[in-house]
Write a structure and sequence with these properties.
By secondary structure, the chain is α+β, with helices and mostly antiparallel strands. The protein folds into 3 domains: about 110 residues, Beta-grasp domain (Ubiquitin-like (UB roll)), CATH 3.10.20; about 130 residues, Orthogonal Bundle (Fumarate Reductase Iron-sulfur Protein, Chain B, domain 2); about 70 residues, no CATH class. About 40% of the residues lie in helices and about 10% in strands. It contains 14 helices and 7 strands. It has a 5-stranded mixed beta sheet with strand order 2-1-5-3-4. The protein has a two-stranded antiparallel ribbon with strand order 6-7. It is globular and about 70 Å long. It is an enzyme of class 1 (oxidoreductase). InterPro entries: 2Fe-2S_ferredoxin-like_sf, 2Fe-2S_ferredoxin-type, 2Fe2S_fd_BS, 4Fe4S_Fe-S-bd, 4Fe4S_Fe_S_CS, Beta-grasp_dom_sf, Helical_ferredxn, SDH/FRD_Iron-Sulfur. Belongs to the succinate dehydrogenase/fumarate reductase iron-sulfur protein family. Its cofactor is [4Fe-4S] cluster; [2Fe-2S] cluster; [3Fe-4S] cluster.
């Protein structure tokens, strides 16, 4: 970037501060700085520490988007401080920026958090290759380019935790493994050398497993390595059906019912989907269902319309289906 193309503007920073050893509650400090277009968020953290308050604490290491140490949140959006340019942040959010740790409830010192929950959930999915190999093999265990592509770049994860702490399910469900753990689980489930017999069943359990994902795509949005954890979660869904480990519960019936509805009508029968998913438990929804029916929100089965392009939709469903439910 030439000197002539470098721009400068004033930006107001509201910075989260907390020291677990000294503070009862967190607080925020305000800084106003001239920021250039060549700076990244990490430069701002450095300037706060070097020019304003030497006690300000944060993690950093590689400065090249490889180690994941400097993951924080800017205006509620998870990001790697060393990768995100200030010009992009100002373009997104304007000149008033709030800098916080990935999870304020787990803050230890300013931007530094206790990531014990992240590592515990990561370890719970057996994030390593399980295989019977000779202690002294006579040759390499080769993996073809095609089989390597099946990993879908899941092995590029740097465990920064950005997706984990951006996930709304992790926020409200302490049992949920989280997108980073699922990406790790997929990476080894997709490896043809792996023969672990429990990992896939483990990530298909209710509350902790992939079926509690709400498909908000927040993990894909914030991943600094563009791994797209939601795609790995979808593939774990498919693996569960293909390998016969998907359990008969509301979540799996919802997936099956969704497909059946589209195949039958070409459009989603929302009332029928709830009935298919819930089964006998549907009785608990009767009061709400009656209100919806009176307001015309529920279409009775005999009045359910079919798409004019049903044949084409059925062909698309058939051609895109990778597993049989």
């Amino acid at each position: 970037m030439s000197k002539d193309s470098i721009t400068k503007q004033k930006v107001n920073f509201k910075v989260f501060r907390f020291n677990a050893d000294e503070d009862y509650l967190p607080y925020y400090e305000n800084y106003t700085m001239d920021v250039t277009s060549e700076e990244v968020v990490l430069d701002i953290l450095n300037r706060i520490k070097w020019d304003h308050d030497g006690s300000f604490s944060y993690r950093r290491s590689c400065r090249h988007g490889i180690c994941g140490a400097c993951a924080i949140k800017v205006n509620g959006r998870s990001t790697l401080a060393c990768k995100e340019s200030m010009s992009t942040m100002v373009e997104y959010f304007g000149n008033d920026l709030t800098i916080e740790p990935l999870n304020t409830k787990r803050a230890v010192k300013d931007m530094i958090i206790d990531k014990a929950d992240f590592w515990e959930k990561h370890a719970a999915v057996t994030p390593y290759l399980v295989a019977d190999v000779d202690e002294c093999p006579s040759c390499e265990n080769l993996v073809s380019p095609h089989d390597a592509e099946e990993l879908d770049e899941a092995d590029l994860c740097i465990q920064c935790g950005a997706c984990h702490y951006a996930c709304p399910v992790v926020e409200i469900n302490s049992d949920f493994f989280g997108p980073a753990a699922f990406a790790a689980a997929y990476r080894f489930e997709a490896d043809i050398r792996d023969n672990d017999g429990e990992r896939l069943s483990n990530v298909n359990e209710e509350k902790q497993g992939v079926w509690d994902c709400v498909k908000c795509f927040e993990c894909a949005e914030v991943c600094p390595k563009d791994i797209n954890p939601i795609a790995k979660i979808t593939k774990l869904h498919q693996m569960a059906f293909k390998k016969g480990v998907a359990k008969n519960n509301v979540a799996t019936r919802h997936a099956v019912g969704f497909l059946h509805s589209i195949k039958k009508h070409g459009v989603l029968d929302e009332g029928g989907l709830v009935l298919y998913s819930e089964g006998p438990s549907i009785v608990k929804h009767i009061p709400v269902a009656l209100q919806m029916y009176r307001k015309g929100k529920i279409i009775m089965p005999w009045n359910m319309p079919k798409s004019d392009n049903l044949d084409e939709i059925q062909k698309l469903v058939k051609s895109s289906s990778t597993v049989k439910f």
